[in-house]
Amino acid sequence: MKVKTILVSQPKPETEKSPYFDLSDKCKVKVDFRSFIHVEGIDSKEFRTQKVNVQDFGAVIFTSRNAVDHFFRIAEELRYNVPDDLKYFCISESTAYYLQKYVVYRKRKIFHGRQTMEDLMPLIKRHKGEKFLLPCADILKKDIPEVLEKNSINFEQAMLYRTVCSDLSDLADVNYDVLVFFSPAGIASLYENFPEFKQNDTRIAVFGATTAKAAENAGLEINIAAPKPEAPSMTMALEQYIKKQSKK
Question: What is the mean pLDDT of residues 222-248?
Answer without folding.
Answer: 93
